[in-house]
Amino acid sequence: MVESKRFSDHLYQWIIILILSLLTLACLYPCLYVLWASFSNPVLLYTGSKILLWPRGFSCDAFLLVFRNPNIWNGYRNTLLYVVAGSAVGLLLSVLGAYVLSRKRFPGQQVLMMLLIITMFFGGGLIPTYIIMKSYGLVNSIWSQILLGSMSTYNLILVMSYFRSIPDSMEESARLDGANDWLVLWAIFIPLSIPMIAVVALYFIVAKWNNWMTSAIYLTRRDLFSLQLILKEILISGNTETAGLNTSVSGGAADYQAYSDAVKYATIVVSTLPVLCVYPFLQKYFMKGIMLGAIKG
Fold first, then answer.
1. Sequence-ordered list of residues with C-beta below 8 angstroms from that of 232, at least 6 positions apart, any chain
2. CATH tag, 61-296
3. Which of 126, 224, 230, 296 has the most CB atoms within 10 Å of its CB?
């Protein structure tokens, strides 16, 4: 009976491992396909089968075309500006708002919290937002990319819950020594909340980096386009001028289409690489902050 139970347990574990392995492969293969296709010979990739298990004729021609494209570098510069400035503004607003709402002595705390939570379910709408942005002269401005989305109620609640988990005795002892609210916030709360702040920073960075809708709505000047909007033009609109292929590829229609497909894959890799490079450095804070937020929140 015991041996039969052990066999059933082992069989159950192997079935779970097999299912999870298949799901992992299904999730990883599209990413690996894009990576392998970006390093493949464009002509061999275009003429070969649709199934790709490794690069076909290792080549960096697609990346050379991408890096020669001024639109990509301009999009990179703009996106880095939007990410850094937007994340900094978002973090500042989240920390300041969370500190105020986490203090029990703040009047009207429940009412303000209720109003903030309502914004998680109901928005003002695209047209009213656009009218407001236009009335303030923020259309075709970098401020439209920095300010919009900088106030996240979800991130605010995360930081606020973490602030509430900090013992009141630490604040009381600091006030006995003459500390005001600013000193309590910057000298006590922020140093103790680095893991959670790193998590919120990662949320803002990823959201700002992947955001193309705001650029598509509020920007018409190409010199302000984000990298995601350039990527959208290359992938969906098939804009060969944006891809920089009109003057870079000389050959027949087949070669032109082959290089066009390869450049799309290389552009995807180039646009996602920065986030993949930043995430490992924030991963320890990410895991620690999520666990602490779940336990203390």
1. 212, 216
2. 1.10.3720.10
3. 230
Q: What is the number of other CB atoms lying within 10 angstroms of the CB of residue 104?
A: 7
Residue type, 222: R
Count of residues in the chain: 297
Nearest 5°: phi and psi at 58? -50, 130
Structure tokens at 96: 């300041």
Which of 113, 88, 86, 89 has its CA nearest to residue 100?
A: 113
Instruction: Look up the pTM and report it.
Output: 0.77
Helix residue spans in 68-139 (DSSP H): 70-102, 109-118, 126-135
Tell me the C-alpha to C-alpha distance, in Å, between residue 225 and each of 78, 138, 267: 7, 14, 15
pLDDT one digit per residue (tens) for the chain, 297 residues: 555 557 677 788 888 999 999 998 888 888 888 888 888 877 777 776 677 777 878 888 788 878 887 888 888 889 999 999 999 999 999 999 888 888 877 777 788 888 888 888 887 788 888 898 889 888 888 998 898 888 888 888 888 888 888 888 888 888 887 778 888 888 888 888 888 888 888 888 888 888 888 888 898 888 888 888 888 777 775 555 555 555 455 554 556 667 777 788 888 888 888 777 777 776 666 666 566 555 444
Domain ranges of the chain: 61-296
